[in-house]
Write a structure and sequence with these properties.
With 155 residues, the chain is of the alpha+beta class. The protein has one domain. 28% of the residues lie in helices and 31% in strands. It is built from six helices and nine strands. A five-stranded antiparallel β-sheet has the order 3-6-7-8-9. Strands 1-2 form a two-stranded antiparallel sheet. Strands 4-5 form a two-stranded antiparallel sheet. A hairpin with a 5-residue loop joins strand 4 and strand 5. The N terminus is likely disordered.
Length: 155
């Protein structure tokens, strides 16, 4: 549990801010934080750089629970559910020529641009059939266990 302590005293006790109540993804998803790729950033900073994207992923997966396993791991279905929660048309401009390269540390490769390393990867603890990677500039990569992938932007 991640607790941030407020300096204000309330009845002789420090008031505690429960980060998990604000960010349910902190508690309900498994996180891989790529601290070695960003040595100038702390773990907390990389989680903050991911923004609300992990929460959109969690909301999408929770919405799809009860569907077949294949449906829950379909990158297009999960992306559409994430986009519904996001509400700003992230899928209107997919990055069709940008790919996740699993064999090279899940870097994001786009022609004529340097590779991008992920800040974080999140997945359900009980189901790693689909993984959500968050990259700089609000880029999101979904990768399932069949190798299907989709890259889009949620800035």
């Amino acid at each position: 549990m991640t607790n941030l302590t407020n300096e204000t005293e309330l009845k002789n006790e420090a008031t505690r801010f429960n980060y998990e109540l604000v960010r349910p993804s902190i508690r309900h998803l498994s996180w891989v934080v790529y601290e070695h790729s960003y040595p100038r950033c702390t773990r907390s900073e990389l989680i903050d750089l991911a923004g609300m994207i992990p929460d959109f992923f969690l909301a999408a997966i929770m919405e799809l629970i009860g569907k077949t396993k294949e449906y829950m791991s379909d990158v297009q279905v999960v992306a559409e559910a994430m986009d519904e929660h996001y509400g700003f048309g992230a899928l209107n401009y997919p990055f069709t020529d940008t790919k996740i390269v699993p064999d090279e540390g899940y870097v994001l490769r786009h022609p004529e641009d340097p590779d991008m390393k992920p800040y974080v990867a999140v997945m359900l603890p009980s189901n790693a059939d689909i993984i959500c990677f968050v990259y700089p500039y609000g880029l999101v990569g979904l990768l399932n266990n069949k190798g299907d992938q989709l890259v889009f932007r949620m800035d």
